Amino acid sequence: MKPTVFKKGKTALLSYELPHRVHTAQIYPKKAPNGSTIIIYGHTSGVRILWRGGRRLKQSSETSKTNQRQAKTNGTQGDAIAVENDIVDDNNRVAEARRLEAFEDAEFESDEEELDAQSPVPSIIQHVDLAIPSEVLHIAIPGLPSAGTSVTKDQVPQILHDRVVFTVASVDSSIRVISLPISPPSNARKAAAKSSKTASKWGEEMAVIHGQYGHAQIPGGVAMTWTPRHSLLGGSRSDVDMLDIDEAIAPRSARQKVEWDLIIASHSADVSGILQIFRLPLASGQGKRVLPESAPPIFPCQTRYLPSPAVCVAFSPNTFPATRHMQLLVADSKGCIKVYDPFRTPLDSKRVVRAEELLTPEQSISRLGEWVASFNTGFEVPKTGSINAPATAQRKRILDAKWATGGRSIITLLADGEWGVWDIDHTGSNASRTSATKRVDNTTFAIGGFLVAVSGSEVVAGSQKPRSSRALAPMTPNTRRTREENLFQDHSIPIGPVARGGISVASLVSASGGVPEDSVVIRYGTYVCRISNLAQFWARSASGSSGSLHGPGLSRVEGIDTRGEYINGIQQFDVPAAKARPASPRDLLVVAEHRLLILTENTNTHERGRILFAREAEHDEIIVQEEMDIDQKLLEGGQLNLDGIDNMLDGMASGATTAPTGRRVGFAT
Question: pTM (2 decimals)?
Fold first, then answer.
């Protein structure tokens, strides 16, 4: 896959044109062994997995090793007999699988790819396609502990270290949980897989939740996480109980026996709206499937009916053993966001249970679950309604909602371009300034504003309310550029049923051990903006000093050209902690209808400028030193005039002169 590169100023845009329609994409949180970033996107014919960057696949000795391995396989009598029996017994399926396994594992170069002016970002080194009978509309990936946390390797399922695991929802109302090796396949195996008829070409496994056992209509979204099985089968769990789970698995013998489950949450518009929770046990043994067989039907372990269809669902960004790692964010279409804990004992069920009332583990799980928080958007009057008719008022519609600040808050985007943050724990930057009466109001954002103005208003990023076109805006460089653009462009964005938007949140562990540093990207129509550090922006908003040009405020993302296609999603690439600390913008993955776009900072331009500046400074220093040496010789010969003495004094003040004894001296300034 070769992209088309567009450069503009400090940014570069890479455009990958695709032969199919793309609906969604996700960036896997764990990198491949060769350092590649894994991108998964769903399209009209299935799923494609991309390995981007890292060490490239070797091309030289790969073919010879494969041929030697195939010759050895074909020349062994025992293997030939086994293959012949497999052909007779299993109609070539086992033979095909063995033929693919005969290829050597991929080998990589010793060094990573060097970037130049023609290739400002890492390239795609490998890709594979997974065929699915219907279009893939949604993809969910499990959360993994961020680098720098105290979570150990034993507190994460082994499958998440060795394989890529994700969930997809299709237009046939089915949900599939897929796993495949995390390392990219070799080119030889990929070439052989094209002619193979086996069901698993890349070593993938698939567990299917059919529509007749789950959703009757097309799922509107899906989310997934993981948890130890014993925390679900106890029949009762609270936040206090979860604090002791880490100690329960502390012994090494106990850690080796921990059994894990994948938890899948999905929603659809069945009835008035439905939320379903699925539990898939992960196999821990060697030589067997990791995911359960899809032949037995997989039924939901919980079903919850909603007052209106949901817009999105998302599990908490915290992972086990955090106390809230199972909390689920559910945003509906009528302006309400709720937090649901699927395996928490309801308050009305915390009583003494008699022996005859004991339930099986499956029955116990189906009766668990509690709604722990609720937030509502403000009201608006539709264009066809009247302000004097309160019955026509309705709550603002939610386009998207995501967890932020480590599960302590929720950032929301509304259909009229308003965005805001709900402070769940009242631990935000302005919590101390908020009165007790305001804290119990679940309709008020802790911070927020309007991305764009409506009804002919002016576009002002980060404003607290839409500004009229006649109002005077402060003349900062940011607003001045916006005013100049408005003279020649129309930034009005349609609202209402046709509004499109979404939120992307990428977290980094705080260096001080406090609230995670969140990078937020919000898209609304064709308008894309970012907050480099949400915690700093929150603190500045609380003090009333948001909107500074050089501060960590809300700024517009320039350079995204989709060639007129709708934006279906935006994701943020991971960055090393050293690069993210100065709040440098992350590279963005933009999902258009028939293309993938990667927006990146043109670091090569900065590097060349830094080298050129260093060379010029070094050249100037040499010239100055030569002049100082000439003045020194004239001074020793008694021929230095007053101008030369002034030059020497200036050089001595800057610490760049040479004393008569040959020693460099300098003066503190």
Answer: 0.77
